[in-house]
């Protein structure tokens, strides 16, 4: 995938995967709508479909919670759907397993049409293929930790011995060994969410769906649970769809991020693409306070090596963050860091390159950073002003 994917309903992006392969996606979503209100089915494809939310409600009495959304979720990726309250992200994740019925569009899991599934196939989907971790835990208060984790296996019909053995293994996996006999009321919020995570893992689903699972937790506990998700994904490679309103959480966990607004996806891309090449002023404002050096990689900042630069300086990987490169240059005292890919020099980064990324004065690939609309609007007037003098050379004297 090159560049940032900004999805259009009528023109789904050709490569919406995260792995760069042609394998079939776990979820394939095209032109999906969920409209609430009278005669909701008439809204998609009508003259009212493109109206802003307030005008749509005034004209039809309907609310489009999910509006003409298209994307693929590839096997093994963490696909994050992020947006503010009311953007449609939680409605979207519930549509994936038809906990909420979509109004129109197409939706498939592993190539199978979800919208064509009868009740038996839907039960099988929810019991075996996709498991959800909710924000409010949903634990059974009269059951122990072990029995809560084993609940899905009980529904599947496993024997008591089998399900308790599996549940014991998963309780240990999420760091709750020794707490098997406690009730939910005897656990902290973080521990309760770990029980919910273990319960979802118990049925061995092909995809885990997280609906803002950590938003009610304290910051330190939330960080611990994010670490747990990162660890589980690293160990198992399980496909995950993660819903959040927290940009930091999205950037930390996501292989790719779909940023939603008013029911539609305004930009879909890797964390680096979202931060480095925002699609519009809304996304640019969203990521304005993100420390760019902690997200963007040296591959976006490097330049060709000049004579004598290929032999000296610390080596960094192309996927190392700019922050890591800054540390390497600072510790070594060398003017540049060499970007090495499998023993091959692919470029260098100097202090000026790194500072440009931190300051946001260059976009990925070394292009000038996009100018916000409110600044660009004054470009015509500014063009009549005298040229400013060139900045003096002195990049080598910049201290990072």
Characterization of this structure:
Helix 6 packs across helix 7, helix 7 (189-202) runs parallel beside helix 8 and helix 13 (322-332) runs antiparallel to helix 14 (351-359). 34% of the residues lie in helices and 19% in strands. Strands 6-7-8-3-9-10 form a six-stranded mixed beta sheet, sandwiched between helices. It has a four-stranded antiparallel beta sheet with strand order 2-1-4-5. It has a three-stranded mixed beta sheet with strand order 11-12-13. Residues 1-22 and 371-400 have low confidence and may be disordered. The protein has helices spanning 53-60, 89-95, 119-129, 145-149, 151-156, 160-173, 189-202, 219-236, 247-253, 271-276, 281-286, 298-301, 322-332, 351-359, 373-376, 379-382, and strands spanning 27-36, 63-73, 78-82, 104-109, 112-113, 130-133, 207-211, 239-244, 256-261, 264-269, 315-316, 336-341, 344-350. It is an alpha/beta fold and 400 residues long. The chain is globular. One of its GO terms (molecular function) is ATP binding. This is Glycine betaine/L-proline ABC transporter ATP-binding protein. InterPro entries: AAA+_ATPase, ABC_osmolyte_uptake_ATP-bind, ABC_transporter-like_ATP-bd, ABC_transporter-like_CS, CBS_dom_sf, Gly-betaine_transp_ATP-bd, P-loop_NTPase.
């Amino acid at each position: 995938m090159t560049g940032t994917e900004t999805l259009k309903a009528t023109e789904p992006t050709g490569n919406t995967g995260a792995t760069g392969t042609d394998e079939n996606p776990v979820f394939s979503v095209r032109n999906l709508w969920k409209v609430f209100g009278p005669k909701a089915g008439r809204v998609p494809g009508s003259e009212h479909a493109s109206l802003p939310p307030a005008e749509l409600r005034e004209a039809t009495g309907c609310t489009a919670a999910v509006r003409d959304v298209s994307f693929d979720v590839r096997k093994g990726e963490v696909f994050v759907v992020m947006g503010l309250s009311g953007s449609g992200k939680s409605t979207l994740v519930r549509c994936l397993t038809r906990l909420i019925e979509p109004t129109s569009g197409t939706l498939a899991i592993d190539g199978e049409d979800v919208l064509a599934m009868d009740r038996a196939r839907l039960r099988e989907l929810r019991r075996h293929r996709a498991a959800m971790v909710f924000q409010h835990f949903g634990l059974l208060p009269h059951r122990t930790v072990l029995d809560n984790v084993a609940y899905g296996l009980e529904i599947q019909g496993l024997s008591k011995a089998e399900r308790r053995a599996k549940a014991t293994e998963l309780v240990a996996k999420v760091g709750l060994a020794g707490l098997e006999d406690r009730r939910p009321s005897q656990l902290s919020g973080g521990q309760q969410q770990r029980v919910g995570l273990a319960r979802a893992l118990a049925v061995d689903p092909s995809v885990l769906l997280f609906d803002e699972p950590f938003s009610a937790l304290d910051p330190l506990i939330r960080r611990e649970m994010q670490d747990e998700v990162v660890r589980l994904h690293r160990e198992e490679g399980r496909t995950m769809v993660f819903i959040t309103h927290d940009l930091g959480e999205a950037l930390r966990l996501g292989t790719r991020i779909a940023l939603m607004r008013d029911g539609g996806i305004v930009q879909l891309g890797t964390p680096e693409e979202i931060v480095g090449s925002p699609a519009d002023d809304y996304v640019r404002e969203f990521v304005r306070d993100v420390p760019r050096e902690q997200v963007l990689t040296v591959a976006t900042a490097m330049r060709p090596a000049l004579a004598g630069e290929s032999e000296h300086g610390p080596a960094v990987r192309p996927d190392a963050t700019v922050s890591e490169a800054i540390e390497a240059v600072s510790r070594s005292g060398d003017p540049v860091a060499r970007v090495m890919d499998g023993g091959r020099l692919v470029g260098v980064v100097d202090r000026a390159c790194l500072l440009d990324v931190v300051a946001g004065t260059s976009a990925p690939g070394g292009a000038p950073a996009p100018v916000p609309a409110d600044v660009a609007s004054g470009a015509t007037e500014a063009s009549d002003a005298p040229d400013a003098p060139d900045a003096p050379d002195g990049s080598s004297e910049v201290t990072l």
